[in-house]
Structures are given as C-alpha cells and as structure tokens.
Amino acid sequence: MPYRSVLHALLVHLVLGGVAGAAHAADEPSVPAVVVEAGDTPAGDAGATPSAKPRADVKEEGEALEPQVADSAARTAEAGPLEVRDAKGRVARYDDIRQLRPELFLVTKASGPSKAVRFGVIRAQGEVVVPLIYAHIEHDADHHRFKVRTPGRRGAEGLFGYLDENGRVVVPAVYERLERVSNMGDEPTCVAVKDGKFGYLDFITGEVLIEPLYDALVVDSLQVDAEGRGLVVARLGGKATGKSKSKTDQTDKAGGGKWGVLWTDGRVLAPFEFDAVGDVSLSQEFVVAERRGQLVRLRFNQGAYLGASEVRPEYSSNFVPRLGSPTDPSPLDGLYAAADYPTMKSAWGASRQGVLRWAAMPSIGIRGHRAHVAFGQFANVRLPLLPNDLAIETHAGGFTMMREVADAAGAPAPAAAATTPFLTFALKDGALVCAGCQTLGLPVRWLKVPVEAPAPFGGIGVAIHKAGPEAALQVTDVLADGPAQRAGLQAGDVVLKIDGDDAGGLTSEQARDRLRGAEGSVVVLHLSRDGEPLPRPVRVVRAVITLRH
Q: By C-alpha distance, which of 542, 474, 547, 529 is closest to 504?
C-alpha cells in the first residue's frame, strides 16, 4: 500500500474518531496505528492531529530495504525519523518501516555513536514483536520465521538464531552460521555452526537433529527429502575450517580426518574411516568412497547401511543394451569410454579436482542410429545445450552426431532443416577418434568397452528400474516374444506386488532377484498401467532368458 495512502488513512482515523478509519481498513492492508513526521506532533500529546506529509523515500511493500539501510543516518538528518504511536499514546521513532504481512512491519533505526543500524518487528497497532536489538532480520514468510543476527563484538559478525512471528525464540542466537539446505526447496532444516563445529537442526521445531560435533558437513536438497530427512556426509578430525564443504571438496586430504555418512537423526551409518566420500543422493542406492587409496562402493537402503564392496565400472552415459536388441548389430554398436579416463580411479580423481561433475567413466553409447551421451559431465566444455540422446548419420568408417538447430528466437527450426552436423567420429583400430572434440574441451579418443555375453538365466524378460526409495518400481523394457510380453506386460507398467508381497519397499536388485527363478516356475504380479491398477493379477511363467549384445 503506498505510504501516501497510509498517512491519509491515519489522518482520517484521527479526525473522525476511528469510524471512518475502520471502514477504510477493510479495503487496505493494516498499517501502524500512527505514523507521523518527527516534530509534527509532540511526543506526549496523544490527542493531537498530525500533519500528514508523504515520505517519498519510504519503500513500498515488498521492496528491498538494504539500499535504504546504507544511508539511513543521512536520511534521518535530512527528513527526520518516522514516529509510531501505539494505542496508549507511546511514541517510537524509526528510520524505515517495511510491511512484511498485513499485521507485521520490519523497522530499522540507526543509533549510538557509530550510527549502527538495528532491526526489529512491530505489529500494526504499534506493539513491539521483536525489539530493536538485532543487526539484521530476515523474514522467511513461507515458514513463518525470522532469522536474526545479533550485533558483533570487536569486529565479529554476531551470532544467528530463529524467532517465530510472535517474537518467541525457536533457535537461540548462539550459532556462527545457519545455512538453509536449499534456497529453492521447502526443507525446514539448516546446517548450524557453533564454536567452529558443524551440526544440523530444524528451524521450525528448534530440534537439534545432529549435534555440532563435526569438522565438516555436507548436505543439500538431493540428499534429503522435503522434510529435510536423509543422508549427510560429515568429517571427524583434521583441520576445522568453520566453513561448509562443497561436494567437489570432500576429499580434503590436506586437512586430515576421516569421512563418514550419517542419517539426519544423528545416527552413524557408514563409519568414519574414509579419506573421501563421493556425491550422495537419496535416489541412489550406493555411493563411491575412497579408503586407504582404494575405491569402494557404499550401499544404502532406506536409511540402512548395507556395507562396502568393490567398485564396479560406472559409465556416464548409463548405456545398457536394450533387451531384444538385434542379433546382427551394426559394427559401430557398443559402449565407448574416453581414453583419458580408463579406470574408475582416474574418473574419481578428475571429479575431486572439478574436471568431471560426477565420478563415472565418460562414455558414449551407440545403438543403431542413436548415440547416448553425457557431455554435461565435463565441467569446462564449451557446448550448446544438448539432449542426452542424439541422432547419428553413419558413413564409411564412422558416423556424425547431429544436433537440433534453433532459430534466432530459440524455437526449433522446420523439420526439413531440424538438424545439423555436430561432431564427426572415425573408427580407427577399434577406437573412435573425434574431429572437433579437442576444440570443445572433450576427449578425442574413445575406446570400445569389451562386453561379455551374460550367462542364460531363468526369468520373465523385463528390465526394471526404481529411481529412488520413494519411487515406483517400473518396467522400462520388455523382451520381444519373452514370457512377460506373452503375458501382456508393457514398458511403463508399475509393479505393485510380487507373489502377493508389496514391491514398494524393494530395491531394483531385490525385485530382480524376486522375478528370477527356475524355468517353468510361475510368478504372479499385480501391476498398474497409466496410473490405474489392472483389474486382475498377471501370471508369468519363467523361461530361460538369453541377452544378446
């Protein structure tokens, strides 16, 4: 609401004894009970009528306060402070007032020899909600909280805490830092630093979830759910920096100490015995870690640690031969790994140095006239925005990747000219050699990965996938003329039950084991399709499955 209207409404309220003002308030947001210019009304004269002079330098609702705070002392000298009188006639003077909610206002005032700015909060009736004692107040409207910072002493920044909208302390102001898990998510949690040690707390309830005992702590919105519950990577021992660690800086060998993985209730899952821990995500069932110079695979399932095992090769393109692929594949078909990163250890090292965005061996998967790529894994490449699936045009001794062309406005070009040559690869001595990759910052040589044909097994001929602990168990592919296809299963079906048992709590690997079995045995599946459960369970007779590459 413009402050010219605010002052006009207040003047009417004073002149007509409040009747007209009450009617006006039904159409306008609430305002402080009395706002007048300094010197217009004697501080002790509760019955006087102020002369309403608009303040051009007062911000409208929602506008940033910071530019005004910087010169508040100068403005006070020029124009005088705003005065707010409550129902009892008591007057308080402020340099700035900003509306937060219809009944809440942020106020500031520069005081003392240093003219330090202090923040507080008042209600529309002039009642003080948060006293004018804080060096800064940040309003979290979504969570109904005030993040406050106390004045620092001898050059220190001050300490952080949280209040509710009634001014009650939720998180005491004893922390050097309070950092939200995400600036975009709804998680009501933050990393808390106290005496240089890291912990984790809920700023809605004030509950300390992880005591501030750790020398570093890593958590972000990929590691936790909407309630802020999930996996946290922490370090014990070594040099305490007092700063949160980014994911690409979790090795920190120079600082010493050991890394481990916690649940957000403080339970230790993976013990503190690792020199580094890779990126953790709730949607993954494993994470790569380094222990005494060797890479290991830490496995998790719904908040439980299943142990460490040997690291298997992980490829960035996530290329998996499709079930039912042709028995006569093209000579180019297969998986190609960048020669610059021939092992998981080399990819791990590159991810720790920030060269690769995640620890997997960079790869290109070729199948027919399509290439599956993950060039976004390279942190310093100079590439246009690309999909992961690109068309290719084969030619003698190689192929050319094609990319879509957009017009000047960013819209796709007409179908007749929708693609243009992007990168050309030649097959030489079993390796793909790229023309133009070096200029873009991509590896030049890509080596074909030998693939051993898997042994036949008893199963139903489906590929299944589960994106995360809370995700559905989905059929992603069905073997042509296999048992599942003959029984009516389709790609996209969701498996609800296996032999009468709920499949929602199973991992992809556990579900795969349940679907496999002796040739001729039967598995009964409850499925949903397009969001609706199928009316009857599906009986599938297992057969010998042979995967072709």
A: 474
Token digits for 268?
């230790």
**Cα–Cα distance measured from residue 444 to residue 434, given in angstroms and rounded to the nearest whole number:** 5
**Phi and psi at residue 125, in whole multiples of 5°?**
-85, 5
pTM more than 0.70 = no
C-alpha–C-alpha distance, residues 211 and 320, integer Å? 43
Query: Which residues is 233 bridged to in the sheet?
Result: 218, 261
Question: For the sheet containing 169-175, what is the strand order?
Answer: 136-140, 145-149, 160-164, 169-175
Q: Is a pLDDT exceeding 60 seen at residue 259?
A: yes
Tokens of residue 545, six digits = 């499955």
Token pair 């995500």: residue: 281
Longest dimension (CA), the chain: 97
The number of C-alpha atoms within 13 Å of 174 and in the hemisphere containing its C-beta is: 13
HEC per residue, 120-152: EEEECCCCEEEEEEECEEEEECCCCEEEEECCC
Burial of 463-489, coded b for 16+ CB within 10 Å and e otherwise, reads bbebeebeeebbbebbbeebbbbebeb
What's the alpha-carbon Rg for the chain, to the nearest Å? 32
Tell me: the pLDDT tens digits for 132-186? 999 999 999 999 999 999 998 876 789 999 999 999 999 999 999 999 987 566 8
Query: In the numeric block, which tokens belong to residue 307?
Result: 């142990």
For 416, residues 6+ apart whose C-beta sits below 8 A from its C-beta are: none
For Cα atoms 475, 288, 317, give the angle at the middle one, nearest 5 degrees.
Answer: 50
Measured CA to CA, the distance from residue 476 to residue 128 in angstroms comes to 60
5 burial (CB, 10 Å; 0-12 / 13-18 / 19+) is middle
Find where tokens 């957000």 sit: 264
> Any alpha helices (H) in 134-260, and if so which ranges?
none
Long-range contacts of residues 530-533, Cβ cutoff 8 Å, at least 24 apart: 530/492, 533/496
